[in-house]
Amino acid sequence: MFSQLKSRFGSGLAVGIIGMIAIWLIGLVILPQLLMVDYSLRPNLLPADIGGPEDVYSLTNYETLFSNKIHLAIFFKTIWSSVLVTSLTLVVSYPIAFYLAKVATPQKAALCLLLLIIPFWINEILRTFSWYIILAYKGPLNALLLGVGIIDRPIRFLSGDGGVLIGMVYAYILFMIFPIYNAIESLDTNQIKAARNLGAGWIRTHWRVVIPHAKPGIATGCIMTFMLAAGSYAVPALLGSPGSRWFTQIIYNWFFEGGDWNQGAAYAFLLLVICIGFIALVMRVFKVGLGDIAK
Amino acid sequence: MDSSVHLDNTVMQFGDFTAIQKTDLKIESGEFFSFLGPSGCGKTTILNMISGFIDPTQGDIKIGGQSMRGVPANKRPTSMIFQNLALFPLMTVAENIEFGLEVRGVSKSERKKASDRLLELVALEGSGTKKVSELSGGQKQRIAIARALAVEPQVLLLDEPLSALDLKLRQHMRTELKAIQRKTGITFIYITHDQGEALTMSDRVAVMSAGRIQQVADPITLYRDPHTAFVASFVGENNAVAGKVIEVNSEFVVLDCGPLGKLAGRCQGNVAVGTDATLFVRPEHFRLQAENGMHTLQATIDEVNFEGAYLTLNANTPANQALSIQLGTHQFSDALQKNAPVSLSYNEKDAIVIAGGGHV
């Protein structure tokens, strides 16, 4: 890499570029992470005891999670709910992405994209709060459903996981739509016509031609949505009920309420490891390589 | 089985733009029929209407006598070979060929039999397990043909499928397509802007311009007796000379072509004395020696091009009428040189006069 950069920009600039990348990667990404790993392996001590005889490396912080039934349940619920959020987002996003990429005229597609993006100019907390209002017990959605006569008494959307799921699908929809849109856009429209021409109905055309082509985009969207959902804090904090806590809230509590950074770091790492493992598994199952996603 | 295609007073409009003017045309069962025209003339629109990707604004498409109105693309007895072939890159060759059968619920073993048989037809036995990307351009072409034939269509639609191939391969594929058409007896509808393809393969050709069919005829008639000035200049090379009609008899029309004198040719359609008309003479109909019944033009040679079997001359008359002439190589002599004078004669039976000026 250095020789390529050197031949293009000269050695001075090449050193500069590489240096900046190195500072960014090492100083801002790798070192803080290593610091957190280090934290997670030490006990939580008073400042005076740090470096003392009790300050030894151990896996105690990691073991805490497995001995705490409630935390463990929330941990798996977070993973499972994130899978659910990802699937729901995919189901909602795929038709939109297909419409934008292959059906809509350029003007309509541009308008739709604008309409999709505009809400994201508003702060995430505020957007989530608007859902809080919409989904409230005496909120507009219940009023509408009551008015139309679909229900005869208001639904408590915010008491279970429902509110969190809706809020997250909404919050991450763009991260799903754009990669899929890009992938479908690069599909030659004649491929769709050819499938139709050979007698395939719409479902089969999508299943055999469009989806296999869009697979890298779908995988990218799913990975982003899954990671964001599993690591989300604002949506569960605002739309969740006490019974639907997210694992990130527990990590937050360790850091800022329990004051136990060491314990919090261990929890955060467990979440990270499981998420990465889960993604690797999904990529394996769907036969998607890292190279496909980078495309 | 009747696999004729009938464009029954079909009109296709996109907003204010009329892509296909009212057209009534019957393509016979088992015919190799071509639509020939420059890009944007509406020929692809016709193919899209027949295959069901778009529905005509007015009129109907009938296949085998059955109206296709409201029949979606995946339920029509047609199959198409796309300009870019549109093979499915993520499937193997065999999966590509079998796709249409898979859709129809044909069993795996039957599908395998069919794809083996088709691979043999296109002379690519044993390529079934290959990826599409491993094939050469010509092989891809054949797989596209095999895939389209696998569904046993009544009508095969071909959208300039040879345009991506090099010249040699293209000529070879022409022969092969024609042979496959004869073997299968399927109605072939071929779209092209390449007159060579249209003339060599087709039973009949429809020449199109600006959404209108100008003439439908077999290739020889089309070349010899073009009905319109567009056909005369689009199909093959032609020299167009404008003039005023001064005499019309049962066979010939005489034009006053100003400084070029009086020239005559066969009459095509209605030509009235006193109106503008255009005389068309093909480059290969010029002779260097005048014989009886011939008309002669005096010109100066601008350029001599040796093309192997023949020579082409670009010449200019004193009245600034550009002419192109094609001569057999045996007629070459040292006298044919840039800036040399030349007298060019043609037989009036070989020339055609079509009403209307301004085609030059």
TrEMBL record, chain A:
The lineage's top-level taxon is: Bacteria
**Could you tell me where this protein is found in the cell?**
Cell membrane
GO annotations of cellular component type: plasma membrane
Under the heading InterPro entries, the entry gives: MetI-like, MetI-like_sf
Q: Where is the major localization of this protein? A: membrane
Q: How does it sit in the membrane?
A: Multi-pass membrane protein
Q: Which UniProt keywords are listed?
A: Cell membrane, Membrane, Transmembrane, Transmembrane helix, Transport
Q: Which one GO biological process term can you cite for this protein?
A: transmembrane transport
Q: PROSITE patterns from the xrefs?
A: ABC_TM1
Q: Where is the ABC transmembrane type-1 domain?
A: 75-282
Q: Where are the transmembrane segments?
A: 12-35, 79-101, 163-181, 264-286
PANTHER family for this protein: INNER MEMBRANE ABC TRANSPORTER PERMEASE PROTEIN YDCU-RELATED, INNER MEMBRANE ABC TRANSPORTER PERMEASE PROTEIN YDCU-RELATED-RELATED
Q: Which family does it belong to?
A: Belongs to the binding-protein-dependent transport system permease family. CysTW subfamily.
What protein name applies here?
Answer: ABC transporter permease
Q: Upper lineage ranks?
A: Bacteria, Pseudomonadati, Pseudomonadota, Gammaproteobacteria, Oceanospirillales
Automatic annotation (TrEMBL), chain B:
User: SMART domains recorded for this chain?
Assistant: AAA (SM00382)
Coiled coil: which residue ranges?
Answer: none
Instruction: Note the InterPro entries from the entry.
Output: AAA+_ATPase, ABC_SmlMolc_Importer, ABC_transporter-like_ATP-bd, ABC_transporter-like_CS, Mo/tungstate-bd_C_term_dom, P-loop_NTPase, Transp-assoc_OB_typ2
**A GO molecular function for this record?**
ATP hydrolysis activity
One GO BP annotation is: quaternary ammonium group transport
Q: Where is the ABC transporter domain?
A: 5-235
The protein's matches in Pfam families, at most eight in alphabetical order, are given as:
ABC_tran, TOBE_2
Q: Which UniProt keywords apply?
A: ATP-binding, Nucleotide-binding, Transport
Cellular component, GO, one term:
ATP-binding cassette (ABC) transporter complex
Top-rank lineage group of the source organism = Bacteria
Q: What is this protein called?
A: ABC transporter ATP-binding protein
